[in-house]
Write a structure and sequence with these properties.
This is Pyroglutamyl peptidase. It comes from Streptomyces marianii. InterPro entries: Peptidase_C15-like_sf (IPR036440). The protein is about 35% helix and about 15% strand. By secondary structure, it is of the alpha/beta class. It folds into two domains: about 110 residues, no CATH class; about 260 residues, Peptidase C15, pyroglutamyl peptidase I-like (Aminopeptidase, 3-Layer(aba) Sandwich), CATH 3.40.630.20. Strands 4-5-3-6-16-7-12 form a seven-stranded mixed beta sheet, sandwiched between helices. A three-stranded antiparallel beta sheet has the order 14-13-15, with no helix packed on it. The protein has a two-stranded antiparallel ribbon with strand order 1-2. A hairpin with a 2-residue loop joins β1 and β2. The chain is globular and about 60 Å long. It starts with about 25 loop residues before the first helix and ends with a helix.
């Protein structure tokens, strides 16, 4: 009944369970030299320890939830403030760096996962706390536009939703940063003048590079309430070297490339709902205007290519000009990894909400963020260098410029 705490949380019927302390694949990377240097040189090395101390003081499930929410939200705000040059830097690492957020969050998750409270806590209750920590520390539950109306200081403004990703392919190079995540931090809560002189407000969030989270609906849960109030949305991820791509078409296929937990998934993108699932969804971003505009030093392409199995065939073929009628998806313009999947899920959600004809939205692939000359060997290279920082700053600035063009009236 209302007002009664669930037995699986901290009530007298709650069941204590043995905590497994085996590190996850992501956590196994945390104590390596590069992540620890990144945390130390950003001042984020004390985040996990402070969180652990706060958890130890929690004497109930309700108090633990408050600790998780406060500390998770504080980590997101701290990362955003650092990227937007508010407050002290606490270290010599470039302020535009997204990696401190990723590694500090992972440290907090590890502390929560192995925490042994003084009250009974079921595995289900712990999972709820972990979920809340993930959402709050990624900005997923704080994408709130100001005001009930669409005016600030007497002027109307556009509302822009933008998402980024964690670093990935960390077993190839533990030093990797993701410019889409860096862009999300740099742009969250900011205002910009659109290409036609209007005003736009940007709200952002970052997503994990994990197949399981996507199957569990993290994209839809985050965006379902945001898209109806938005005037533009763009999912952003790292793509090809030396270029931006506006991905014209997204496919309903998972290609199986390992995620950050080294998990592979191959098959149709799993989405909830009884409505028939399309093989393809399309961008409604103003791609022609974006491609034609001067937005930065990297070229921007309207990418129309897909890989499909044509009707009546069993063999996949590349179609440079998009899918043919009745074909089965094997890769969208953005491939068949989680960047394609977030684009597919977000645009499918747009369509299911009846917003296809009124809400511009789709996917932007950034260039690969490259280290500077002489710093390309992961075994011997430094965690940062001037060329690396310059490349990331240029990509962030061009993402902002692309949004400014796309958000024009």
């Amino acid at each position: 009944m209302a007002g009664t705490a669930p037995a699986s949380a901290d009530g007298p019927a709650a069941r204590a369970e043995t905590v497994s302390v085996a590190a996850t694949v992501e956590e196994q990377r945390l104590d390596r030299a590069a992540p620890q240097e990144i945390l130390r040189r950003s001042g984020f090395d004390s985040v996990a320890g402070g969180f652990a101390r706060a958890l130890r003081s929690a004497d109930s499930y309700a108090e633990a939830r408050r600790v998780v929410d406060r500390r998770g939200s504080a980590l997101w705000r701290r990362a955003v403030d650092r990227a937007q040059v508010r407050g002290p830097a606490h270290g010599d690492l470039s302020r535009d760096d997204d990696r401190p957020l990723y590694w500090a969050r992972l440290g907090m998750i590890r502390e929560l996962r192995v925490w042994e409270p003084g009250f009974a806590l079921s595995s289900e209750a712990r999972d709820r706390l972990l979920g809340e920590l993930e959402r709050s520390s990624r900005g997923q539950d704080s994408m709130d536009f100001p005001g009930a109306g669409k005016a600030v200081g007497g002027k109307g403004f556009k509302r822009v939703v933008l998402t980024g990703f964690d670093p990935f392919t960390l077993d190839r190079d533990i030093r990797i940063s993701n410019p889409s995540g860096a862009a999300a931090l740099a742009l969250d809560g900011t205002w910009l003048h659109t290409a036609d002189g209007g005003l736009a407000r940007i709200e952002t969030a970052v997503f994990p590079v994990r197949w399981t989270d996507f199957a569990a609906g993290t994209v839809e849960r985050t965006l379902r309430q945001r898209l109806p109030e938005a005037d533009l949305f763009t999912t952003v991820s790292q793509g090809r070297a030396g270029r931006f791509d506006i991905e014209r078409t997204n496919g309903a296929w998972r290609g199986g490339f390992p995620d950050n937990e080294n998990v592979s998934r191959t098959g149709t993108v799993p989405v909830a709902g009884s409505v028939a699932q399309p093989q393809w969804t399309s961008t409604t971003l103003p791609y022609a205007a974006v491609v034609a505009a001067e937005t930065g030093r990297f070229p921007v392409y309207d990418n129309t290519s897909v890989t499909e199995i044509p009707t009546g065939s069993t063999d996949p073929v590349v179609r440079p000009d998009g899918p043919t009628s009745g074909s089965t998806a094997r890769a969208g313009g953005g491939g068949n990894y989680l960047s394609n999947e977030i684009a597919y899920r977000a645009t499918l959600l747009r369509d299911r909400l009846g917003l296809h004809d009124t809400l511009p939205g789709g996917h932007v692939h950034t260039p690969v963020l490259e280290f500077g000359a002489g710093n390309t060997d992961p075994a011997t290279g430094a965690v940062t260098d001037p060329g690396f920082v310059r490349n990331r700053l240029d990509i962030i600035a061009q993402v902002r410029a692309i949004v400014a063009v796309a958000a024009r009236r």
